[in-house]
Amino acid sequence: MSENINSLINTITVGTSIKGDIQANGDFRMDGTLEGNITLTGKLVIGEHGHILGNVVCQNANVLGNIDGNLSVKEFLTLYATSRVKGDIVANKLAIEPGAYFTGSCHMLDELSE
Question: Cα separation of 106 and 86, whole Å?
Fold first, then answer.
C-alpha cells in the first residue's frame, strides 16, 4: 500500500493494439500499437516493435520504435538508431543516434521561458 503510484510502469506488450487516447501518471512502455494520442506525466519508452499513430506529450522519452505524429517532450528526448519518427518535435534536449529516421521540424524549448 505504501508503494508510490508514480513509480509504477504501465506496459503495452507486443501483439497488443489499442485504439483511443491514453492519459497516465508515471512511466509507460509501449511495445504494441496505439492508434491515438498519449499524454504522460513521466517517461515514455517505445520499444523496437512499438508504434504510435498519434501525438505524444510526456516528460522524457526514449524512442526505439515508430511514431507517426508530433512529439512534445518537456525534458529529454532520445531517438535511437532503430527509431522512425514522422512528425514535428518540441523538446528541451534532444539526442539522435546515427541511423535514426526523422522527418519533420524540430523546436528546442527555451529554458528561460519555461
Answer: 11
CB 34 within 8 Å of CB 16: no
Per residue in 51-109, pLDDT (tens digit) is: 999 999 999 999 999 999 999 999 999 999 999 999 999 999 999 999 999 999 999 98
- Closest to 35 in 3D by CA, of 53, 48, 17, 47: 53
Please count the other Cβ atoms lying within 10 Å of the Cβ belonging to residue 11: 14
Residue at 28: amino acid letter: F
This prediction has a pTM of 0.88
Beta-carbon count within 10 A of 95 CB: 12
